[in-house]
Amino acid sequence: MVPPVVERLVPVLRDLGLEPVGVVTARTLKDRSSPDMVFGDLTVPAGLDLLFARDKWSVEPLLRALRPDLMVCWGFPWKLPQAALDVARLGSINLHPALLPRHRGPIPLSWALREGDGRFGVTWHRMDAELDTGGILAQTSIPIEDEDVVIADIGPKLGAAAFGLLPGVLERVAAGDPGDPQAKEGASWAGHFEDDDYVRVDWSQPARRVHDQVRAWNLMMGMSKLVAPVAELDGERLRLVRTSLRDPGDGSRRVECGDGPIWLVETEPLPGQ
Predict the structure, then answer these.
(1) Secondary element (H or E) of residue 182
(2) Given its phi and psi angles, is residue 76 left (phi above 0), alpha (psi -120 to 50 degrees) or beta?
(3) Alpha-carbon distance 221 to 97, whole Å?
(4) What are the DSSP calls for 131-174, one per residue?
(5) Quick one: DSSP state of residue 193?
(6) Which residues contact 201 (CB under 8 A, 6 or more apart)?
(7) CA 47 to CA 18: how far, in whole Å?
(8) What's the rounded mean pLDDT across residues 176-196?
(9) Which candidate, 3, 19, 2, places its Cα nearest to that of 11?
């Protein structure tokens, strides 16, 4: 679902001796205003077929047309039927940005920020009919930096970490290794935010907690119907879009939190203000 990932992943796979044959992506009604987030002739490397699945049930026949030895999944939005996962001779593997079994589900990066993990995880695992429960093939993590605000800041670092694990992952796959079973302890679900408590900004919280709240909502990347996070400031209600723990020197508004200042780099007035 992410053209920049495909663009970077294809040459990595080729360097490792694999030959990518096609990209299967999900056809959705979601408006994607950024040109580099839309698949087409300019975003798919030369030599690859591009196939759009109308729903999860059409993925299996599309994959059969490609006749792959291995399916590599990254950022796909649907829970795929086991029949689709079994098409490839060597099975299907997925890159999940969390330290499984912690933060299974659709928005693990957001939950890592919400729960103050301090690090973003990276896990390659076998795919099964459930979400993010298959055998683990390799894991690592990267530190969460204060400047990691949007996916463009984080994605390249996650990608580099994931690509670094691929040689060992592919060796295990080629050998038929099922991966290490996930522990039952420490499993958690990283589902979409729905609670009102995390919508509202509490200025009495530490500045880092507020900063993480803003970043966590950013990394949902439009997957929530809620307008958040919402802050009240001098009688005005605002949606916080981007914050900083250091003065960016561009005239950003300074606000005192429970333990010190935070700077509002970008905000949006709420309708009716």
Answers:
(1) none
(2) beta
(3) 15
(4) SS-SPEEEEEEEEPPTT--SHHHHHHHHHHHHHHHHHHHHHHHH
(5) P
(6) 210, 213, 214, 229, 230, 231, 232, 240
(7) 13
(8) 93
(9) 19
| 41 contacts: CB under 8 Å, gap ≥ 6 | none
Give residue for tokens 């919508």: 199
The model's confidence at residue 78, banded by pLDDT at 50, 70 and 90, is very high
Alpha-carbon distance of 60 to 49, in angstroms, equals 15
User: Which domains does the chain show, CATH number per domain?
Assistant: 3-174 (3.40.50.170), 196-269 (3.10.25.10)
pLDDT tens by residue, 54-63: 999 999 999 9
Residues in a beta bridge with 121: 141
Q: Please, which contacts does 131-134 make with residues 24 or more away whose CB atoms are closer than 8 Å?
A: 131/79, 131/104, 131/105, 132/94, 132/96, 132/98, 132/100, 132/101, 132/104, 132/105, 133/101, 133/104, 133/182, 134/94, 134/179, 134/182
Q: Are strands 49-53 and 261-269 parallel, antiparallel or unpaired?
A: unpaired
CA distances from 174 to 88, 92, 179 (A): 12, 12, 12
